[in-house]
Amino acid sequence: MPYNKRMLGANPLRSFAQDAGVKSEWNLRMSRYEQVDLAYDFLIGKEKLGEAFTIVQLAEKTGWKIDTCRTYPSKRWHQYIEKDGDQYSSSGIGYLSKEEFRAVHSQKLQQTADLSSKGILLHKAKEFALLAVATYNNPYTEFKTYGFIVNIVIAYTSLFHAIFEKRGVDYFHKSSDGTPVLIDGEEKAWELAECVEEYWRSITSPEKSNIKFLIGLRNKIEHRSLPAVDLAVCGECQSALSNFETMLVEEFGDDHALTASLAIAMQLTRISEQAQIDALKQLQKDNYRVVREYMETYRDDLDDDVVQSQKYRVRAFLVPKLGNHASSSDIAVEFINVNKLTEEQRKNYEQGVAFIKGVENPYKLRPSKVVELLRSELAGFNMTLHTKCWKYFNARPRHNDRGFKGEYVAYVEGFDGYLYSKQWITFLSKQLKDEKVLEEVKRQEI
Description:
Layout: H1 5-8, H2 12-49, H3 55-62, H4 66-74, E1 81-84, E2 87-90, H5 98-105, H6 117-137, H7 144-167, E3 182-183, E4 186-187, H8 192-199, H9 206-221, H10 234-252, H11 269-283, H12 289-300, H13 304-307, H14 343-356, H15 367-375, H16 383-392, E5 409-412, E6 417-420, H17 422-431, H18 435-442
Antiparallel strand pairs: 1-2, 3-4, 5-6
Helix pairs in contact: 2-5, 3-4, 6-7, 7-8, 7-9, 7-10, 8-9, 9-10, 9-12
């Protein structure tokens, strides 16, 4: 066939060189992704079978070094890999194509969006958590607590759904015949209360109690204009946010932490003391009664170790930090781990707490709670015996005296009745172990 200039172009050697260059670049690219593709196939296979794998197995299948294989699950694939001791398992790789997995594996990891159901739910959870903070910290927002709760409930619900997606838990409602319950054509997912019970099955924890308190409070204030509750529950709100981030990081890794987007809210200290006094007065008004009684009853029914936990309610104070170098670059607010303080340091901080903190009301126990606690120590203890006890020991008046405050019991406004202290439990437990005293108490007339 005669040479044709148009077929090969003006310079046939250059054309051959260009073709060779394209092929060389293609081969290089395929070589670069060969081990990544082997990792993708390996992870997909394990995920389909529901099997865990080890770093050694990953290295054997891909040809990567052991140290390299240790890095990828915690750095580049952290959204899809869960570690349990020496075992690893993948979740969500099946939603990615091979090209998408290559993008995840590339150096542009932080710019790669996770478009799986889990990834979308996780993004929604973080967005609404930040929205909750923005609402609460906005100085122009009057109903801070309600705005915060509405958004943090959505955030928690989405976070739990993302966790259930990762774990393969079916979190959708089913009808009696096992078919999905549909609302507007969509499957009805569990609400937050149901998610909480699934996540902490038969477990009582401060985090669980915190969320359930906020759910109940939302239901109470949903149709009421009650800004005065903000100061009364700010500790619970702060704990809810802190617990949210802890769970987020523990379940999905440090890269999802919200701290990069948050700062400590500035406090208007000049008016805070009077604002607290005014808010407490407002909270005693009759239109707050339903919410006030809910808050008091819920807290009174909790175990002391739950109420005292920072995971249920944050209680903190700020101490001015003095330093030798005013221009030093350390953070203005420092968080102290009490467990790491020396005895002398702890005494100094405790003195500061004693100086600025208010005295917490010791009278928190309803009569039914007193009976419940004593029944575990004194078999057969009941409400009738308890009534005889306070009458025998003259612990309180027989009529309602709104100003009464005794050693073991006091009349509490809001509860509109008498509540007891833990010292009353200790006192009765000791006294009633004496058989003579117990018999005398039983003879007491009601």
